[in-house]
Amino acid sequence: MSEKLIKPDVFDCREKVMLVGPGYKYDFIERNLKQSKKVCFTKTYGTVLTFYSWLKKRIKSKYTENSYQAGRKFREELREISSNMLVKVLEGRIDLKGSPSNPWLKDFYQGIDCYYISFPDLLGMNGAWQWFSKGIKFPGLSCKLHPFYGTYFPTRFEHLELFDDWLKNTGLQIKKAVDIGTGCGVLVFYMLKYGIVNIHATDINPNAIYSLKEDLQYHNYTEQVKLFEGKFFAGAKDKYDLVVFNPPWIPGKPKTVIDKGIFYEKSFWKEFFDEASSHMEAGGRLVILFSDLALVEGINHMHPVKEQLRSDERFRVLNVLTKHKKTSKNDEERKAFRQTNGEKDETIELWDIQFD
Fold first, then answer.
1. Rounded to whole angstroms, how far apart are CA atoms 250 and 299?
2. Cα Rg for the chain, rounded, in angstroms?
């Protein structure tokens, strides 16, 4: 497995840690974690899982407002405190009775027989393994995709449904297409579904490139799709008549490569449109899948795509297709909170833009 791939940091077993197990008071453990002491849990997997659930509820009780900002602060505080919760891994298995198995614990750390890993990282790895091993069925696709660890994949489908409908009804003959920030490659597979067989896909995340490469090989599409690791139009030497982009939806400063699929910085949109203008055929189409989530939640006060296109004469908006976000129970609670505060519901958008 390539050393370039992103994986959780681990700690040498010779590193000094505090050992805790059943019977230790939760307040005592929490206090030491807040003092940045590394705490290793012993005996049973249930011990560490129960404490983590207690800590999660304790921190959550501080953030009663049902908003995106409150949710983000909660997650950041939980991550900061729990990052020093450690478990030991011996020869690829968690050294706790009743622990789940995960082949990546050995595959990711070849040659390391004993190490500590943070419990939140372990939970993330276990969740990712389930998605990877079982696969994900996306609406309108006949095949499952198996996103590798650390690879972005959609957990909601409104923008995928919009893209599927657009491809079905567009009537365009696409000779060359590019998927910017491909993630697990789901948009690539929608294009393949409609007979687009010359596709260039990029991502700055090496795990995404690895993940899509594996799925393309499994489904026999390696000749139709060329992969490049890098930003925006990395590796592009041609001009394209279709550019597809599912960008980050939230303004902010990314802390990790994976965060760059969620947050965009101030210069992001101008840089993207400038590059797009250099890599598109005249009359070519640019499809941007976006959401007004940042506007709805009060994180942003302007729509970045609208704002950029208002003064950019190189591009012309042909249509904007929309869907309202489907709501779950938690979404209903947040919706009620927003309506109480005079805010509207989130809208998912497909921008159909022509390069003139």
1. 8
2. 23
Q: Is 18 helix (H, G, I), strand (E, B) or coil?
A: strand
Q: Which pLDDT does position 340 carry in this prediction?
A: 46
Question: Is 5 a domain residue?
Answer: no
User: How many whole angstroms separate alpha carbon 266 and alpha carbon 271?
Assistant: 10
Condensed to tens digits (0 to 9), the pLDDT of residues 44-53 reads 999 999 999 9
CB 315 within 8 A of CB 189: no
Which range among 19-28, 147-156, 259-268 shows the weakest confidence by mean pLDDT? 259-268
Tell me, yes or no, whether 3 lies in a domain. Answer: no
Residue 338 pLDDT more than 60? no
Examine the fold and report which residue of 132, 147, 162 is the final residue of a domain before the chain moves on.
Answer: 132
Compute CA 222 distance to the chain's CA centroid, rounded to the nearest angstrom: 24
Instruction: Tell me the CA distances in angstroms from 159 to 258, 322, 349, one per residue in order.
Output: 20, 9, 7
Residue 90 burial (CB count, 10 A): 12
Q: Which of 132, 154, 171 is the last residue of a domain?
A: 132
User: How many Å apart are CA 311 and CA 304, to the nearest integer?
Assistant: 12
Give the CATH number for residue 195.
3.40.50.150
Tokens of 238: 């041609």
11 with 37: CB under 8 angstroms?
no
Residues 231 and 347 in one domain: yes
How much is the pLDDT for 42? 96
Query: How many structural domains comprise the chain?
Result: 2
Half-sphere exposure of 77 (CA within 13 A, CB side): 16
Mean pLDDT of 48-63: 95
Is residue 193 scored above 70 in pLDDT?
yes
Which contacts of 294-300 are long-range, i.e. CB under 8 A and separated by 24 or more positions?
294/249, 294/250, 294/251, 296/338, 296/343, 296/344, 296/345, 296/346, 297/67, 297/68, 297/69, 297/343, 298/67, 298/69, 298/343, 299/68, 299/69, 299/250, 299/251, 299/252, 300/251
- 237 φ, ψ (degrees, to nearest 5): -120, -10
Give the C-alpha separation, 92 to 306, whole Å: 50
Is there a domain that residue 4 lies in? no
The pair phi, psi for residue 15, each rounded to 5°, is -70, 140
Measured CA to CA, the distance from residue 38 to residue 165 in angstroms comes to 51
Structural domain contains residue 145: yes
